[in-house]
Specification:
Length: about 160
C-alpha cells in the first residue's frame, strides 16, 4: 500500500467534501497533514505533521497511518464516520437528536422530526451530521424534510456493532 501526502487536487476535493457539511478543512488540519493511501480504494487520513515527515524517511511502506476520515471516489471526497466525529463541533449542517432518537439512529433508523432538539442551517437534499445531545457524531445523513422522516440515515456508528467488527 502506498501512503503519501495528499496532492493539491486531493486537498481541494477534501476541502469541498468537508464544506458540504458547513465546516472548514483548515480547522480540521491544525497541526496535521492529509495522507492518501492507495490500494484499490483511496483512503484519506489525517495525522500529526511529524508522521508525514517520518513516512518520507521509511524504507518500507507502512500498512496504515493516521486516522481515516473518508475516501476519494471518482475525484469526490466522501466523509467517513471518523471524519464526521472530527468536524462535529464545527459543522453548520447538523441535527441534534434526543436520547430516543440516538438509540434509533444507532440501530440504523432514520431521524424523525419529533427526535430533533436542535438543527443547523439545512435545506432539503443537504448532507448533514446527526449528533447526540452531547454533540458527538452518531451518523451521516441526508435531509428529507418531508413527512415524519426528517433526515435519512446513510451511515451510522451502530454499523460496527451490527456487523460484528
Amino acid at each position: 500500500m502506498k501512503i503519501a501526502p495528499a496532492s493539491r487536487s486531493v486537498a481541494r476535493a477534501v476541502e469541498r467534501g468537508v464544506a458540504e457539511y458547513g465546516a472548514s478543512l483548515r480547522a480540521l488540519l491544525r497541526g496535521r497533514v492529509l495522507l492518501v493511501a492507495s490500494n484499490g480504494r483511496r483512503a484519506v487520513s489525517v495525522a500529526p505533521r511529524k508522521v508525514g515527515q517520518v513516512l518520507r524517511k521509511l524504507k518500507r511502506e507502512p500498512y496504515c497511518a493516521g486516522l481515516e476520515i473518508g475516501e476519494l471516489r471518482r475525484g469526490r471526497f466522501r466523509l467517513g464516520l471518523e471524519g464526521a466525529y472530527l468536524i462535529a463541533g464545527r459543522a453548520e449542517k447538523y441535527v441534534r437528536v434526543n436520547q430516543k432518537g440516538e438509540q434509533l439512529v444507532l440501530y440504523g433508523r432514520d431521524v424523525f422530526i419529533g427526535s430533533v432538539v436542535e438543527q443547523g442551517e439545512l435545506n432539503k437534499g443537504d448532507p448533514c451530521l446527526i449528533l447526540n445531545e452531547r454533540g458527538e457524531a452518531l451518523a451521516i445523513g441526508r435531509v428529507e424534510g418531508e413527512g415524519e422522516v426528517f433526515v435519512a440515515n446513510l451511515r451510522d456508528r451502530g454499523m460496527y456493532l451490527r456487523k460484528g467488527e
